[in-house]
Amino acid sequence: MGFQSLRKVCCCLFIHTENNQLEDISMANQKTNHPKADDRTGTVDTIAQAEQLLQEATVMEFATLDKRGFPNIVALTPLRPQRSVKQVLFYTDRDTTTIHNIVESGKASIYCFNERHHCSVALQGYAGLVSRSEVQKSFMADLTAYQQSLHYANPVFLRFTTIFVKVRYQDNVTFQKLLDHE
């Protein structure tokens, strides 16, 4: 299964598990003037929209490929100050399927949805562990109360680096390539 298919599976899985959101999406297919659109050209600022969605997201769907080539999707909470369209940091345990999958293949995808604005952002890129020398004391201070309560036996920070960005705002879909890594 290619990486392009992984994103599609991730998005479809999320939509099909949230029936009320599926209704909202279908009802929102009307032309609107989004504040991030350039009125002169009608183009949408994909990066600005993605940044806004990422900052508002409290949970993200994080997909990796298992050794059989199938997507493994988990819900992860990103570190709030350590996120942008270029990079997102997560806190998890070393002994998870997600980490084992990343060791085999760093290809990953992130997806999050904002029901209030009927929009979503999907990021494709690579994930890897943050080395001990890179971990800053501020990372631990940035953990939410929930993340701190997890008390992982082998805690690690996971860095996702974006290559492609896809933003859906109602009936507008835009793409942007960030890095040349393929």
Automatic annotation (TrEMBL):
It comes from Schleiferilactobacillus harbinensis DSM 16991. Gene3D superfamilies: Electron Transport, Fmn-binding Protein, Chain A. Pfam families: PNPOx_N (PF01243). It comes from the Bacteria. This is Pyridoxamine 5'-phosphate oxidase N-terminal domain-containing protein. Residues 49-143 form the Pyridoxamine 5'-phosphate oxidase N-terminal domain. InterPro entries: Pyridox_Oxase_N, Split_barrel_FMN-bd.
